Predict the 3D structure of the following.
Amino acid sequence: MRLLVSVRNAAEAAAAVAGGADIVDAKEPSNGALGQVSAAVLASIASAVAGAAPVSAALGEISRDDIAGGADAATRAHAAFVKVGFAGMRGRLDAAAGLLAAAAVNTSAADLVLVAYADYQKIEAPSPDEVIALADRSGAAGVLLDTCDKDGPRLTTLMTSDSLRAFVARARAAGRLVAVAGRLTIEDLENVHDAGAEIAGVRGAACENGRNGVVSESRVRALRRALRRD
C-alpha cells in the first residue's frame, strides 16, 4: 500500500519526499477537505518533488469550486491524479455527472479520483456507493473515501472495519483504484491495509501540531515504516 501525504507548499513537499511519501498531494487545508492550492503553489510543489514521486492535486467540491481551472493547472504541473468532491450534491447525481463533463476533468493527463465522504449525510453529499456509481458513469480512475468535516470523527470511527472492507471491495470490483483517508492516525494504517485499499492518505498525522501545522520529515518516515508495502 502506498502512502499519500498532503502538503500545502514546496517546503512541505520536500519534507514529504525526504520522509518517503509515495504520493505528494497538493492541498490547502484552510480551504476545506479538498482545498485547492493556487496554480503557482502547485507548480512550486511539483518542482520541489522533481519527479521523485507522483503529484496529486485537490480540486475542491464540484458544487462550488473552479474545477476546470484547477484541472488546467494540474495538467500544466504534470500531476498524476486530480481529486473532486461532491459536498452539497446529494440526490443530484445527474447534475454532478454533467458538471464533471462540463469541467472536462477527465480529458487531462491526470487520473480522475472521485471523493466519497463517510460523513456524507452531514454535508449533503452522495453516499459512498453512489460515488462508486458516478465513477462508473464518468470513467474515473479511482475513488477516495474520506471525511469532509476535519473537526469531526475520524473515518475509522465513522465506519467499522467490515463496512470499510465492503466499500473497498465494491470499488475494486468496479475496476477502480481505491484510496482511504479521513484523519487517519498511524494506528489506523493496519486497518486500512487490511481493508484492501491501495493508498492511505494523511495530513494531520504527518504534521507537527496537527492538520494546520507543518509536515515533518520524521513523522512521514514513521508513517512510512508503519505502512506495509504490498
